[in-house]
Amino acid sequence: MTWADFVGNSRVVGVLQRMLSSGRVPPALLFAGQKGVGKFTLATLFARAANCEQKGKDSCGRCQSCQTLEALDDLPGLRKAALDARGSANPEAVPLILRPHPNVTVLVPDGAFIRVSQMRYVVRQSYNVPTGGGRAVFLIDQAERLRFDFADVLLKVLEEPPDRTTVILVTSEPFQLRPTIRSRCIPVHFAPLSSAQIESHLQQQRPKWKKTERELAAAAAAGSLATALTLDLDLYRQVRRSALELLRASLRGEFDPERLFAATAQLAGKGSAETRETEDSGSKRERFDFVLEVVYGLINDVLYLRSGASELRLRNPDIQGELERAAGSVEGEGLNRLVKKLDRIEGWQRQNINRQLALDAVALAPTRVL
Ligand SMILES: [Zn+2]
């Protein structure tokens, strides 16, 4: 994969290309934007171009370095190989490090967090001179999951960056990062993709899908290409059915949060028993967030239809009739009450899950660190 294959955010691509061609690359970049817009992918393309032996504007895709770095296209595969290699060793003694190329190191959460041992590895490794005239690139994916209490371990690299070294923090929640870290990075903001961009990409990647399915996936994904590509349309429709029932019942004044949890359980039922047991609190949060996202999407559509602003594009164009009936039967006050209740549940649920994350951290950390 090269810059030319990247979908969307052409302005950001241009900025990164100019940094490399001018040789003025900041030591620390913060890639921020919603999930699924290609932040991590673009970070890997940066690493490839910075280390390509052809030294052109783009990575050539053919030299030894480019070939080796193709491994970055399969992040789950790299992660699994590193976990297998570690076996039963203590994660604080053998940090989870993905290093497909001598100059390119990737950190991903190890359990609920990116561990202190992983950050310390980056600090040690950053003082090694990059090989082959290339650039050392450290990619930190889901940087919002850096152990908050230890994130300052990284400050040393960000403050006194070694030559030809760049750290790229990738996150969909930049404000979860410590201000000390955030303020030392050049922010690079990624915009959501347009529905047209997503639909045209789906046309190439999912040629068997009907036009209406592509439209629904693009609308439901709300700017996230990865969501559109991985969306299980049948499951989405099932979850939406529960969400619509919740919406209708609340509009009649019969709010029932159980429906929300029933929809979440439906999603959980999709994974095998094994994945359910081994999944961490982070993925439970993602699942709950997905269901909430569907409910909020429906509420947005009803608000659009009530205000006559539906040309802004509905998230659920295929059930416009049903949504119009809902919009016609509700007072603005009823919707407000529903949103407030959802917000309360969201806050409560997040608190619960955060507590779970904190407990996981205690369970994982060796006692001497605490
Ligand atoms: Zn190359």
Can I get a quick summary?
With 370 residues, this protein is α/β, with parallel strands linked by helices. It has helices at 10-22, 39-51, 64-69, 75-86, 116-125, 155-159, 179-182, 195-205, 211-221, 225-230, 233-251, 258-268, 273-278, 281-307, 320-328, 332-364; strands at residues 28-32, 98-101, 104-107, 136-140, 165-171, 186-189.
Would you mind describing this structure in some detail?
Helix 6 links the parallel strand 4 and strand 5. The chain has a six-stranded mixed beta sheet with strand order 2-3-4-5-1-6, sandwiched between helices. The C terminus is likely disordered. It is globular. It is of the alpha/beta class and about 375 residues long. The chain has 16 helices and six strands. The chain has two domains: about 190 residues, Rossmann fold (3-Layer(aba) Sandwich); about 140 residues, no CATH class. Bound molecules: zinc ion (ZN). Zinc ion (ZN) binds next to helix 3.
> What is the terminal-to-terminal distance?
43 Å
Number of strands: 6
Fourth-tier CATH superfamily name of the largest domain: P-loop containing nucleotide triphosphate hydrolases
- Strand ordering within the main sheet: 2-3-4-5-1-6
Overall average pLDDT: 85
Stretches where pLDDT is under 50 for at least 5 consecutive residues are 271-278, 365-370
CATH topology of the largest domain: Rossmann fold
CATH architecture call of the largest domain: 3-Layer(aba) Sandwich
Spell out the helices and strands N to C. Answer: HEHHHEEHEHEHEHHHHHHHHH
Which structural category do the helix and sheet elements fall into? alpha/beta
**Helical segment tally?**
16
Q: Which bin fits the share of residues in helices?
A: 40-55%
List bound small molecules. zinc ion
